[in-house]
Amino acid sequence: MLYTKYLKYILIGFAIACLTYLGIVFYQIGVPTQTARWIYELDRIKISYAKSIESPKILLVSGSNTLYGLSCATIFQETKIPCVNTALTQELGLDYILSHAQRLANPNDTILIPLEYQLYLSKGSPSELSIDYVFGYDPNYFKSVDLFAQIKYIGGISSDRLIQGISTKLKPTSSQKKYANRINQYGDTLDNGKDKMTEQQFKLMDTWSPFTLNKYAIDNYAKNKIIEFITWSRKNNINVIATWPSTVNFEVYQKPDTQAFFQNIESLYQSQGVPVLGKAEDFLYDKSLFFNSVYHLNDIGRNQRTKQIINLIQPYLKNS
Predict the structure, then answer these.
(1) Sign of the torsion formed by the C-alpha atoms of 52, 133, 59 and 240
(2) Is the pLDDT of residue 176 over 80?
(3) Structural domain harbouring 47
(4) How far out from the chain centre does Cα 296 lie?
(5) Is residue 178 within 8 Å of residue 41, measured between CB atoms?
(6) What's the pLDDT score for residue 5?
(7) Has residue 214 got a pLDDT over 60?
């Protein structure tokens, strides 16, 4: 009897703690934080341009390898088809990136997806930055996902982020820092000029290392999400084309296990009838073409990669 009484009190206490925690989480949903503000400001420009285009367009969809590494301005100039660089950061996660593309795409559009390699290993767990951004700037996305995904977001929020959200809710602050001048109207970054690189940035290149790609196998979660996205696109008369992210050419990427990983990615798209532009090796570049990350090309590298993509994508644009 005493045991049952204590168990009852424990369960009641646990329930009260959970409800209190949920109350705190929901209290600060929709409160914009400064840490994720840069994503919001850049995305507003990209969304505004995408929605202003009535004719078929090209959407570039991935993380920052595309934000820094492809030029929609040049693609539009060469193909005469409007192009929107929707890319922000891979930390938003595979689910969010693909959902974001679905919100912007219309029938007869073409979506080019050069996903970062880590996104093929996604298990659906949101990063700290993704949680920060969704709760602060895109609560509608949180409401749109299933209960299991919502639990991941709620369970993943840190105490620091909760405190930041609550303090901002009680005492709103305005940032003096502006980010809109970092991109052009097409969504391409403007701050990756090689002539702007510091000596420190050049030194940091020597510390860069290749990716560790967990057994070099595509995670089933990521695979299913990509297939779902392709299926949705096909039903909505949207053309999907895959290609490879730009990254530094480390020797380890020539080893059999890495090559098998690249082949698995290609096979995934081929099994869904999605064309793949080029080979992974075509987009492995020397460090001299990068800016501040193994995924971020400088403007010279971006020009080179953009020309490659234009040459490879032209036949598919004509067919579509």
Answers:
(1) negative
(2) no
(3) 35-137+182-319
(4) 13
(5) yes
(6) 67
(7) no
CB 252 within 8 A of CB 210: yes
The pLDDT value given to residue 68: 97
Tell whether 21 is covered by a domain: no
Identify which has the larger pLDDT, 8 or 136: 136
C-alpha distances in angstroms, 254 versus 99, 124, 257, 261, 319?
33, 29, 8, 11, 34
298 contact partners, CB below 8 Å, separation of at least 6: 192, 193, 194, 197, 289, 290, 291
pLDDT at 27 over 90: no
pTM summary value: 0.92
Residue 231, in any domain of the structure: yes
CATH code at position 59: 3.40.50.1110
Say if residue 107 is exposed, middle or buried (CB neighbours under 10 Å; 0-12, 13-18, 19+).
exposed
122 lies in some domain? yes
Angle between helices 128-137 and 37-52 (to 10 degrees): 60
69 in Cβ contact with 297 (< 8 Å): yes
Which residues, other chains included, contact 239 with Cβ-Cβ below 8 Å and sequence gap of 6+? 108, 109, 110, 111, 233, 316, 320
The strand pairing partners of 60, in sequence order, are 85, 112
Task: State how beta strands 290-293 and 296-297 pair.
Answer: antiparallel
What gap in Å lies between CA 279 and CA 276, rounded to an integer?
8
Has residue 170 been placed in a domain? no
- Contact predicate 206/233, CB 8 Å: no
Kindly report, residue by residue over 247-288, the tens digit of the pLDDT. 999 999 998 888 999 999 999 999 999 999 999 999 999 999
CA geometry: angle at 95 spanning 94 and 101, to 5°? 90
CB of 114 closer than 8 Å to CB of 65: yes
Q: Is there a contact between 303 and 269 (Cβ–Cβ < 8 Å)?
A: no
How many structural domains does the chain have? 1
